[in-house]
Amino acid sequence: MVIDTLKCVGCSDCVVACQTENNVPIGYCRDWITETVNGAYPNVELELKSERCNHCENAPCVRCCPTGASHIIDGGIVLVTGDECIGCGACIESCPYDARYQHPEGYVDKCTFCHHRLEKGQLPACVSVCPTKCMYFGDLDNPNSEVSRLLKNRKWKTLAPEAGTKPHVYYLI
Amino acid sequence: MQEEIFVSGRNIPNIDPSLEVWHWPISVYLFLGGLAAGLLLFAAVVTILNKDKEYPTSVKYASMVPPVALSLGLLALVYDLTHPLYTWQLYTIIRLESPMSWGAWVLLVTTPLSFLWVFSYFSELFPKWNLKFEFLKNFEKFLKKNRKNMAYALVPLSIILGVYTGILLSAFNARPLWNNAILGPLFLTSGLSTAAATIILLAKNAKERHLFGKIDLALIIIELGLIVHMIMGMYAGSEVQLDAMHLLIGGEFTLMFFGFVVILGLIIPGILEAMEIKGYKVPVAIPAILVLIGGLIFRFVMVEAGQITRYLY
Questions:
Q1: What is the mean predicted confidence (pLDDT) over B179-197?
Q2: What confidence score (pLDDT) does residue B3 get?
Q3: Interface predicted TM-score (ipTM)
Q4: Most exposed: A84, B10, B201, B285, by fewest CB within 10 Å?
Q5: A86 contacts B84? CB cut-off 8 A
Q6: Total domains, chain A
Q7: Whole-prediction pTM value?
Q8: CATH class for domain B24-308?
Q9: Which domain, by its residues, includes A36?
Q10: Would you put residue B172 in left (φ > 0), alpha (ψ -120 to 50) or beta?
């Protein structure tokens, strides 16, 4: 997933779409908006972006999971199998992005990149509703896909790369 | 200067301000697990060295503690799970990458072994109770004969159990305070120290009390050294580790850590034990109880403070 921080206006449509699509219980969320202010007045810079699970290549949550409920499927999406999860919280403690939460029913839940929609050939809910079209979703292994081309042509960053997780959500800056 | 404001998602009470998913049962378990591991290790080592007649408390009386401690600790662990009915899923798979997985397996082996160990001393511990059934008597005899074999198994198991209480935390790279390799040996040493303190409390003869007083003093000195190492390592670390360290030094956990853990839980009992070894009259229960309380508070500080620390991006 590629997110253009220059286009994002922080409207939270992605958050609401996700909560509706995935029946996220009230008080929880799988994605969220951050406003970052850089610098001191008068040289300040505001950055808005939508954050979620980074579906890391070297996912610490998958490494720490004692039952194998957290796993990486073909294509690189990190998923949690609800009825293999014991709710120990190891994955929550191991995630540098705090992207996971304990669902009131007990198991741990997080962004799935709307896996159920992808199977039908649809885009994740957050991407499909974004009014400024600042989010892009696609196959990074394919050099001709839109996301690959964006990453080739624009400056980008990932979140906390020093954590060594190799995140797969890229922010255009 | 960078200031980050979370909107939408992040001002929701169930996720922010900090993700505290581990509560007091985890700290209590880490304490009880370390204590049980230390007691089992001492019992096993004394037995292997054929000193069980000279030091009866460490092999016999104190060995009543680990089964109780491990059972209560396991209950505490399950209590803190949010999906406890699925606990059996832990035992459908062995995941070497996940410390919690092999910790669960080690607990599954060690807990029954600690019960068997006490049972092998049943008729000595409770001479008035008569084992009603013949097969129970035979089983006790069988265990008595195999006590040394159990001891050989317990040495590696108890060391793994003691180290595991620390490794469990240090495996999480997202919590900078926990993510240092010294936590395993530190928790093992602390567990051994609390175990030695328990034996001092329960010991009936002066010889055993003296020996474990010396052992405990040595362990306290090692533990202080490891704490200095941990702080030095953090100070030489990256920004997130420096931030984590400031919780313990000059932050909200300073009094708890230095006042209750380092001074009251290590330095003062260390001095008292050294005085006792030198021949001064010191009631040994005082340093022993201080060590136990210090060990418990140490777990609470590490679990609570560790969860506040996080990566900044």
A1: 93
A2: 61
A3: 0.85
A4: B285
A5: yes
A6: 1
A7: 0.90
A8: mainly alpha
A9: 2-172
A10: beta
